[in-house]
Structure formats: C-alpha cells, structure tokens
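Mods, move this if it's the wrong board.
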Amino acid sequence: MNEQLLNGIIEELEHGHTSEALAALEQLEKTGTDEDRLAVADLYIELGLSDRAVDLLAPLYVEYAGNAGVALLLAECYIDLDREEEAISVLEQVDTSDMEYGPRSLVLLADLYQSQGLDEVALAKLKEARNLAPEEPLLAYGLAELYMTLGAFDQAVPLFAEIAERPELRAELPLDALYAESLAMTGQFEDAIPLYERAVAERSDLHTLFGLAMTAHRVGQHQKAVETFQQLIAQDPDYTSAYVPYAESQAELGLTKEALNVIKQGMERDDYNDELRTMEALFLLKLGDRTGSVQALREALALNPESIVAAERLLSLLAEDEDHEAMIETISAIEEHVTAPILTWYRARALYALEEYTQAMENYAIVEGAFTEDALFLKEYGFALVEEGRREEGQRLLRRAAQLTPEDNELVDYVERMDG
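Not the wrong board. Structure tokens:
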C-alpha cells in the first residue's frame, strides 16, 4: 500500500483541498494495488461517494470471492445507495462463522429484512448473530428492540435485564425507557415506574412521559399520574390520548370539577373525539348535571354512532328517567350503525314497561344466550316470564340468578319460598 501517498491525500482533505484530493484518488485507482483500491474505497465511503466506492469494490468482490471484509464494504455501499436486493445478495454469501465479520453481516441482513417487513427472517438473523457473539451487548439490545417491534415484550424483558446489570452500558444505550415499556406491557407496572422515572429525568420525551403517566394511572398512583400528565400536556397540548386517563386520575383523587375541566381542554383540541364527550357526561352526572350528561352522551353518539359505551350509559339514564319511548327511538337510531345484545336487552326492558309484552318477551329471548351469567338480566327476564305465566322457565332463570348473587337476600328468599 502506498501509505505516503494516501497520507498526503488525507492531509489534502483535512485542509479542505477536496478537488486535489479527489484527483489524486482517481490516479491511485488506476496505478495502485488492490490494497490501495480498498483504501481509496474506504475514503470514498467516508466522503459519502458510495457510487464511486461500488465501482472499485464490485470487481474486487468478484476477484476475492469469499473475502468478508470486501463483501461488507460493498454491501454497506449498496445500502447507502438504496440497492437493498444487491446488498442482501452479497451479505447472504458471507461466511457467518467468521467471528470478525459474521455477526456484522447478520445484523445488516436483519436490518434489511426488517425494512422489507420480513420480521421473522430478521429475528432469525439477529438470533444467529447473538449465538455467535453472546457477550456483545449491542446484539442483545438490538434483539430486544426487535422483540418489542413484534409485540413479544416478554422476550425483550430478560434481554434488557441482562444489559441493565452492566452499569457502564447505561450511558451508551437508551435503556431505561424501553426496558420500562417492556415491563409495563407485560404487567410488571411497579417495576416499570422507577425505570420510567429515571428515563424521564434524563430526557422527558412525550412517549416516555405518557408511559410513566399511564403506568402510574394503572397501579393507582394517581397523584404521580396527574403530575406527569400535566407535564405531558404542557409540552404538547395536542396529545389528546392523554386527556381521558388524566381526568380519570384526577377523579380518583376526588377532583371531579378539575377532571371535567381537563376533558373540556381536550375537547378544545379535538372536538370530534367521542370518548371525551362520553367522559364529560360521566363527570357532569357526578356533579349533578343530569340534563347536561344526557346531552353529552347524545353528542358522543352523533360523533360515533357505534360507541356502545356511550349508548349503554345514555340508555341507562333514560331508563332511570322512565323515558321508554326515547329509549326505543335511541336504540333504533343506533342500530342503523351497530347491533349489540345490550341494545336488545334495553329494548326488551322499554317494551315491557310500555306493556308491549309480546314484543318484549321476544327481545328478551333473542339475547338470553348472551347473558347466561348476568344475574341482573336473569332476574329481570325470570320475573317477566313468571308474570307472563311461564313459571317453570322463569323459575329456572331465577334459581340461576340467586346462585350468581347469594348476597341478594330478597331474591334468595323468593327462590327458597318458590321451591318450598
């Protein structure tokens, strides 16, 4: 290798004499050895001239078939040039048992296959690389990240735990946030919180803040959840998925008015969010505004006629108000968009109250199979059957309801007298 000439070219580059350096490199391409050409290709790569590097490396790759170093350089140039299939073709020929180049070639292949949506192939390549270099923490980290992408958080957790045992790696790898997320996704909320807190202390990005707030919310640490949601919303008021759990945590602390205000703030940011309207209705009801609650639920259903949560809450309020005609009208409107057994149950209840007994019993019968373990339905339908003279059928349902709710003394006494 002409080291003197190469060193002179590097000095030219360092002093900003790019044109002179490139001219010298072109000359060295023609007159130098293969070793010189490899060195020139390296410099081209450093300069971002991957196309020139390919022109040098492609013939060397053919001439030195099996040389993993040349293959990797060529593959990396192909990747830079978005020539992925050619990169894969080169990398697949690398001898993976080569401890110097094998793991690197497998990692590059994993990245390429993942970019093509072939996650399982990518996973196999990374696992093979880790088997070759089990002590390499970056491979454990990459494998854990890929498991997260695949939703296999239980597989990611032990890998992150392995890395966490090496404190010197914490400064190099953004470990805490991902480790915390994996723990939270596997239900290990208490273990996730301190990791989330450390991650937030280092860099309070929105995703990590939301992760900490939601995890605290799930385990009942509502004060911590509220404080973190406040920090999140302050950074990004348009993070609308935070408003509902934020308000729920405030409500758990007894701050219902504040919870309602949070929901209203969310509605200002996203006026078409039916979940926010549904939560508004809940808090209005808690504050004694029944009319406002009904209106909010109607608005939620106008935004999303398929919202069974909003439908059930609205029908429950209408049933309490004994507004049976409104119940039937509401159900008919909703069923233009979605059907559900709970809607048929409410229709049966309303029809029975309106003394439309035949239709009511037909509707009860339609959904009986959906509520075989629902004591309230069994009790309600059972008594209706008894009232309609179908005592044996009704008593069967009432016995089952009593079994499900032994604390319902009135029902249990009735069943005992009935069977006595």
